[in-house]
Structures are given as C-alpha cells and as structure tokens.
Amino acid sequence: MRLLALLGGLVLVVAADAYAGEKQSCLDWLKTVAFAAHQTDYTGVFIYQYDNRVETSRITHFVEAGGEYEKVESLDGPKREIVRHHGQVWSYHNHKMVEIDSHKGQSKFPSLLPSQLSLLGSNYQAKLAGIERIAGYDAQAIVFQPKDSLRYTRKFWVHTDSGLLLKAAVLTDKNQVVEQYAFSQLQIGGKIDRSWLMKSAIPELRSKSGHHHGSISSSSPRVHAGTINSGWVAASMPVGFKKIMEMQRPMHGNHAPVIQIVFSDGFSAVSIFIEPDDGDEDDVEGLYSRGAVNIFHKVAYGHLITVVGEVPPLTVMRIFDSVRHNG
Prior knowledge:
With 327 residues, the protein is α+β, with helices and mostly antiparallel strands. The protein has 5 helices and 21 strands.
C-alpha cells in the first residue's frame, strides 16, 4: 500500500511538472507574439467578427531605419484609416488626417496581447491545442481558460515560423465565440508596398520623399491625466484583478475631469469611471455590449458610475454593485 501511495504521489508530481512546462511554453509563445507584432514586415486583410457583424480591414506594417510604420484601413462602410509611427497616431477624419491620443488609437490585432503576462498564471489554465492552418500558414493554437466563470476564455493562433498572431478569439464558458480577429489573406516578409508613405498627408511620413503638401490638423489640446487616490474602491473585484492605474483625466463632452480606475487580470481590463451626476437626460442607465466589451452605468451616490470591461455582463454588473467611496 505504501508503494502504491508513493507511485501515486510520483504520478501527481510528474503531471504537475508537465502542466507547468506547458503553461510556460504558452507564455513563451505570447512573448514571441509581442515581439513579432512589432518587428515583422507583413501586409494582409483581416476580419473582425462580433455581435453578428463583420468588419474587414487591410493592414500594412514594416520596420526600417526610420522606425516602425503601420497603416490600417477599412474595406467596408465609411472610410476609416489609422496610421501609427514612433508612438504617434493619426486618424482619417473629415477628409484629413488628424493626430489623436495614442491611447485612443492603440493597436489591436495582431498586437492583441495582454499587458500583464505575470498575472496570467494564477488566473488562467494554459494549454497547447495543436497546429491549424490560418490564411495558408501553419499556426500553433493556444488556449487560456479562466479558473472561474467571471471572465472569458482566450484562444490564439500563432504562426509557427514568424510568431505573428494570425487569429484571436474570445469565447464564453460554453465555447461560443464572443468576438474574433482573423487574417483571411496575408503576406509575411517579401516586398511590402511603401508607396503610401510618399503620398501621405502626414509631414513626419511625407518628409521621406521631400514633398510638403496635403492637410493635417492636430486634435484638441492635450490635457495630461494626473495620478490620484480618489477614495473610490471596488470592494468585490473578481479574484486576480489588480489595480494598475488610478487617475483624473479629461473626457470628451465633460466639463470637469473624470476619475478612472483601471484593473487587469493579465488578459482582461476593467475601467471604472466616476463623475458628478449632472442630471443630463442623455445619460441613459443600463447595460450595453460590443463584442467582448460590456458597459454598465448608473447614477449612485450622487455620481454617474460607469464600468467598462472585457468581461461577461454579469461580472460588469457585480463590479458596479461593489463600487463605494471610503469615508
């Protein structure tokens, strides 16, 4: 009996070591994706699916001596275009390119990655899910499944050679797709078209060709956010969410700055916005969703409180119910 017990213990140790090795392998893949998204030359068409809707975009990305360049343009609906270079972001608006807040224009797919890798291990179970073909390339599938029902499952498909992210999906606990990005056409490396740089209306880009025509304007004056300790807390955040930022910042359409508190579990970010209730009838209370992002706002304690999170609707409402002001 003692021998059987020892053997059973050995099996458990071996299984635990195997899982630890697989988890580390999954995290290593994500680190490779983070590097490849910024250091790989590629161009292609990707599809974003959410709420029974489909959006198609073309992306061109390359790196050269002048830095990293990226252009994303919509292929359906109204013209939309985003250009990124050296941490600056421009958006097509009213027939001209307007510089915008880099946070508003943050790169998504294929730079769709967690910012807090160190938090993932305690909040998600990671496993390799085989090799699949995406847009004509072999991709390693990786699944990060949450340890509770308060967050979504994430699945990634990573190009086995370059490490570029080819597909990403957010899934419910019943394996239903909430939203997903996927390349439908892709060229990695080779001759990437750079002619748009010479034709750009953005001086920083156009200067490469020596021309100085076209129109560009700056966005509204930038007001820097300030880090604060507001006294507002969320008493029942799901286990594993850590506060990573608390600040007072300007908000479009608001006369006074708004308090924003940001939490993350490694994959999912949740923001709580708090502002004095101005009695505006346009502030309709309730729950709204777009893909994996759910928003719930309501007036409480004389303030309009809004919770925005890449988590299921019930989680957003649970967080809202726990918001309090200490003192």
